[in-house]
Amino acid sequence: MDDEQSPVVGTGALPEPRVLVFSSSPLSMELEVLPDQLVGQLLPPSAADVVVEVESGACTHVRSDVHGYFVVTPVPSSPLRLRCDTATGRLVTDWVSL
Q1: Does residue 17 surpass a pLDDT of 90?
Q2: Is the distance from CB of 70 to CB of 40 less than 8 angstroms?
Q3: pLDDT band at residue 15, thresholds of 50, 70 and 90?
Q4: Which residue segments constitute the domains of the chain, with CATH numbers given?
Q5: What's the average model confidence in pLDDT over 66-77?
Q6: Which residues contact 70 (CB under 8 A, 6 or more apart)?
Q7: Torsion over CA of 43, 61, 89 and 35, rounded to 10 degrees?
Q8: Where are the extended beta strands (E) located within the chain?
């Protein structure tokens, strides 16, 4: 029998992504929080202007594609909320800390 031990695989696993869902008739937004970006989708899918507002009042503007997908980089470190306007309606999220 061999006394040699198998190498230990690193335990510094990356944190699991979190998914947040915001709903406001007739729109909803799914937001996946990853270490380096936020990936979102608007439902029903549509192109839209998405505004990411942080606690200081600074805003970042991104555009979703026709399928409702958008990406925000980098991930803000302070509480934020998202606003979006589509042909269907407007959605404004609550303030959240990521």
Answers
A1: no
A2: yes
A3: low
A4: 18-92 (2.60.40)
A5: 96
A6: 39, 40, 41, 42, 48, 50, 62, 63, 64
A7: 30
A8: 18-24, 27-33, 38-43, 48-54, 59-64, 69-72, 80-85, 90-92
pTM, two decimal places: 0.81
Residue whose structure tokens are 């230990």 = 8
- Sequence-separated (6 or more) residues with CB below 8 Å from residue 74: 36, 37
Whether 25 has a pLDDT exceeding 80, the answer reads yes
Amino acid sitting at position 5: Q
Residue 8: pLDDT over 90 = no
Place of tokens 């503007």: 61
Cα–Cα distance, 74 to 97 (Å, whole number): 14
